[in-house]
Amino acid sequence: MIDADSSISHMKGALFILFYSPVKTGTILKRCCKLKSAYFTNPLAAGLMTQTTPKPFRRCITASYSQYKLATSVSLGGMLEIYDFLIYGLMASYIAENFFPAEDHITSLLNTLATFAMGYLTRPLGGIVFGHFGDRYGRKKTFTFSIFLMAVTTALMGCLPGWHSIGAAAPVMMILLRLLQGFSLGGEIPGAITYLSETAPERRGLVIGILFLVIMIGVSFGTFVNGMLEMHLPAEDMKEWGWRVPFWVGGSLGVISYHIRKHFSESGFFDALDQTRAQASIPIVLLFTQHTRGVICGLMTIGLCGATVTTYSVYMPGFLSSLLGFPREAIAWNTALAFLMLSPLCLICGILSDLINHKLILGIMAVVIATTAWPAFQYFASPDAELNKIMLICGLLVASASGTLPPLLISFFPTEIRYTGIATCYNTGFAIFGGIAPFTSTLLAKYSDNTSGPAMYLTLMAVISLIALFIPWPNVMLTTNQYDEAS
């Protein structure tokens, strides 16, 4: 290791040669530039610093134009992926009629929602695979491929013939494509979170807030497309072919987003890690052997987020139309408007996550979700309920959970396993606690004759997430191999 005095001597020598030697000046300049780059991205790799505990980045609530542009470009891909994934839930009633016919409408819908949950169950596997390649070979390549895979599977779902055309092969193929959708989504949002946090570490709450702001717009976009179709197409046409249109739209836009992502640069933190050759050979093994507490805290945090977001966004259209009798077209329009209006709240909550103690954020969100679930669903089922107010309540809770909870994952894992750690926690949390939310809520409502079934589930999830407050949280700085304990 070279100390500070030695490094100064080296730089003096380099300057002497630069100004007094008539040959190879260009080569020396290139080496000096590389030395400067290595120093600012990873001083340890440059050999100019001894290993000491770094000071945390100063938090900012503003960003440069280039950082806003990059965050928006990355987020557009996330928006399209979430649109592609959630459009299945929005079209659940039509898919049920075409692929899972049954005499009892609720049973048919339950079969469709069970397939919806299967898409969540493959997300952890996708997270492990994409996380491995992202931590070994780069963030950019992996989450660029993920959107390409999502675009292809979504377009194919829109082209599948139904049960009446090919029989039992139809639901089997739909399930397989749904599994591939979940697999690709497993690498998308965690990859975007990792990439953005490493390209703007001092503004990570802000840029991740932008990501989830745009993702909420994706939910709004999906419901907008659904509403347009419900308004302009008769019910018979929607059942026959209209439900396919959103899948074709998502597949086409996904291909465009893939070409945009091909021009991104790699994360600076991963480049610095590559210089030190510090990538974990098998990131998932290192994750569970050395960072168990980070995994537990991440699962509790994202479990609450997954249950809240899935219940109040994906599950609500089917709940309101099938169980409460609200018209589908009105649900679609009110959802699109409410989510669009409240999406900036994700950005505000993301900024707050940079300024407020993380344990306090989780505790507040758990209490808010638990205490609002029962009165919210009692109001939804009341005769005086207004659809616009219902969707404003849903949008408010979705935006709050999306903006505050995912940024907490970043400080749980070091650079060499960050993609894998975030992907494992994010996808497993959504798979276990979010994927089963629609099915469990519908089941509770069916067998208890109680429309507050989703409130029971959300309250239980809020209580479970509070367990994380009693565990010492990891606090990993956004640099390589620096790991401190949080109080």
Provide the β-strand percentage band. Answer: under 5%
Poorly predicted residue ranges: 1-58, 480-487
Give the % helix: over 70%
Shape: globular
Query: What letter string, H or E per element, gives the SSE order?
Result: HHHHHHHHHHHHHHHHHHHHHHHEE
Largest beta-sheet characterization: 2 strands, antiparallel
Kindly give the count of domains.
1
Query: Radius of gyration, rounded?
Result: 24 Å
Average pLDDT reading: 78
Specify the structural class. mainly alpha
Name given to the CATH homologous superfamily: MFS general substrate transporter like domains
CATH topology name, in short, is: Growth Hormone, Chain: A
List the helices and strands and how they pair.
Layout: H1 4-20, H2 25-41, H3 43-46, H4 65-90, H5 92-99, H6 105-121, H7 123-137, H8 139-157, H9 163-166, H10 169-199, H11 204-232, H12 235-240, H13 245-261, H14 268-276, H15 283-290, H16 292-323, H17 328-342, H18 344-355, H19 358-380, H20 387-404, H21 418-434, H22 437-448, H23 453-465, E1 474-476, E2 483-485
Antiparallel strand pairs: 1-2
What do you see in this structure?
With 487 residues, this protein is mainly α. The protein has a single domain (66-485), classed as MFS general substrate transporter like domains (Growth Hormone, Chain: A, Up-down Bundle). It has 23 helices and 2 strands. It has helices spanning 4-20, 25-41, 43-46, 65-90, 92-99, 105-121, 123-137, 139-157, 163-166, 169-199, 204-232, 235-240, 245-261, 268-276, 283-290, 292-323, 328-342, 344-355, 358-380, 387-404, 418-434, 437-448, 453-465, and strands spanning 474-476, 483-485. A two-stranded antiparallel ribbon has the order 1-2. A hairpin with a 6-residue loop joins strand 1 and strand 2 (483-485). Helix 11 (204-232) runs antiparallel to helix 18 (344-355) and helix 16 (292-323) packs antiparallel against helix 23. It is globular.
